[in-house]
Amino acid sequence: MRKNTAYGYAFLLALTLLFTSAAAANNSIQASQYIRNYSASITAKSGGEIAIDGSVTGTGIMDTIGVKTLNIQKYQSGAWSTVRSFSDVYEYESAQADFYATYQGVEGSQYRAVITFYAASGGGSDSRILTTSSVTAKN
Question: Which member of 18, 29, 94, 135 has the lowest number of beta carbons within 10 Å of its beta carbon?
Fold first, then answer.
């Protein structure tokens, strides 16, 4: 009986880890009273180009919704430093905002994006920060 219970707990733990990993890989997060979810991805294209795209969805029609800041960062000398910034990319009177940005990187260098999503409605607002995984610029 004890052996079956131990196997049962091990099975439940494995299922929990499986579903947790799948949710984390999606980079989509249930957020707040104003932001239903947000997501972003980064891709290394040919010729060193780095592309970042994503979206933010409000809990309804928002007065303002979008990206407050998008910082593209490069890993150099053991630290991440911002090499390009975008700010205040918004949609108005909308439930969702999508974005797409590119940066001409250097082949072999690592890049990531740090994005601050923002939504406001009826005098209230909220923001959430997401850091993408890193990619290596390719030829």
Answer: 18
| Cβ contact 97:4 at 8 Å | no
| Strand spans (E) along 28-109 | 29-30, 35-44, 49-76, 79-104
pLDDT score, position 130: 98
What does the block give as tokens for 129? 């920060």
Paired residues of 42 in beta bridges? 52
Domain coordinates in residue numbering, the chain: 28-136
Residues of the chain with pLDDT under 70: 1-31
pLDDT of residue 13: 44
List, in sequence order, every residue forming a beta bridge with 28; answer none if it has no partner: none
Per DSSP, the three-state class of 75 is: strand
The pLDDT, as a whole number, for residue 105 is 97
